[in-house]
Specification:
alpha+beta; 11 helices; 9% strand
């Protein structure tokens, strides 16, 4: 009988291929990936397989220690694969919907509200170059995706051309391969940016738009393509998040100035900044003083894809509140690409930026991460 880890690894591959076969399935995956854009492609696949509605995931230690939130009794964790050197192991994350704060305070994830659009467009243009169309926010996001793809696709394309198992891509010459890759990469990156900003519409992405994805029908090709989409979209979404957060901080500072004109504000704002920066890191945790049982049930006889969906972790019925210390974790579980271009680090486990927090030292307005 295969181990639970092997079931997850096999299911990861199965989910990759299954999602790429159908436009609606691929777009559904991109919506999950957009909400969890600081995770790697492999993690996004597993999150989507187990919790497609997840909006902000982190490990239990992050929720306890940094966000002053506790995982609900009976909640199921999402099984992800991480590496200790070259040895794979399972770790578990929980969506924000599976957590609570004792004082009833909720986390409000960042939103690209209309009043921020002009500043976001300026920030995107400053970071990624002149935008082809910035007549409105939606077209600015589409143009941003185009700039990002043009600036970053070549390293991925070079590696794609060297992948041994190219499937439907085998018969394409170098020019045809570049056309297909660019088009597929552009459409998915655009959709992720629009989705996270609440502007993606199904009617805007007809079958012909996503048709090039069908060429990526092997583990080698879909893994590299998905990684490229995830990496490139993350660049744009991080810039949007950072801009929104800075604008919200500025708004709060203005409000405090009018509310308390004679009161020094430097202590609170300094603590705020320190907390936000601390939340930028990963949240892999030790199992010492475990807060939940590491075992999970997998029904026999299911397909690999179905088994992944059933690999969630149940929280112990008795709620523990002892702190858990976070550690680092590795990125890729399947086929990590080695690129000659600039490499970037992911959080892989920090929660998406939030507004609203717990009391005292755990106040995390606009916390960075997810």
């Amino acid at each position: 009988m295969p181990s639970k880890l092997q079931i997850i690894l096999d299911g990861l591959k199965s989910e990759m291929l299954e999602n790429a076969k159908d436009d609606d399935k691929w777009m559904a995956f991109l919506r999950t990936a957009a909400n969890n854009y600081k995770y790697s492609f492999n993690d996004q696949i597993l999150i989507h397989a187990q919790r497609p509605d997840a909006t902000a995931c982190a490990e239990i230690g992050f929720w306890n220690d940094r966000m002053n939130r506790w995982v609900n009794k009976g909640a199921k964790g999402i099984a992800l694969v991480t590496y200790n050197g070259t040895v794979p192991r399972l770790r578990y994350v929980f969506d924000v919907s599976d957590t609570h704060n004792r004082y009833g305070q909720e986390i409000r994830l960042w939103q690209a509200e209309e009043r921020y659009h002009s500043d976001i467009i300026t920030a995107l243009e400053d970071s990624f170059g002149e935008l082809e169309d910035k007549s409105d926010f939606r077209h600015a996001l589409i143009s941003t995706a185009k700039n990002l793809v043009e600036d970053n696709m070549q390293d991925y394309l070079s590696e794609l051309s060297e992948r041994p198992d190219q499937g439907y891509l085998t018969d394409l010459n170098s020019e045809g391969l570049e056309v297909v890759f660019r088009e597929a990469l552009l459409r998915s990156t655009q959709y992720m940016l629009l989705s996270r900003c609440g502007l993606a519409q199904r009617e805007d992405f007809f079958d012909e738009h996503f048709h090039p994805i069908f060429f990526f029908n092997t583990i080698d090709t879909i893994s590299l393509y998905g990684t490229a989409v995830s990496d490139i979209a993350e660049m744009g979404l991080r810039e949007i998040e950072s801009t929104v957060r800075n604008l919200q901080i500025a708004e709060r500072n203005v409000n405090r100035t009018f509310a308390n004109p004679g009161r020094p504000r430097y202590d609170e704002s300094a603590n705020q900044t320190k907390t936000e920066r601390s939340n930028e890191h990963g949240t892999d945790v030790h199992e010492a003083g475990r807060l939940f049982d590491p075992e999970f049930d997998i029904e026999d006889g299911l397909s690999s894809a179905g088994q992944v969906r059933d690999a969630a972790e149940n929280v112990s019925p008795s709620e523990s509140e002892s702190p858990v210390q976070p550690t680092g974790d590795e990125r890729h579980a399947v086929g990590p690409p080695e690129r000659s271009g600039q490499k970037r680090d992911r959080d892989d486990g920090a929660v998406d930026a939030a507004d609203g927090a717990g009391p005292g030292r755990d106040r995390t307005d606009e916390s960075d991460g997810s």
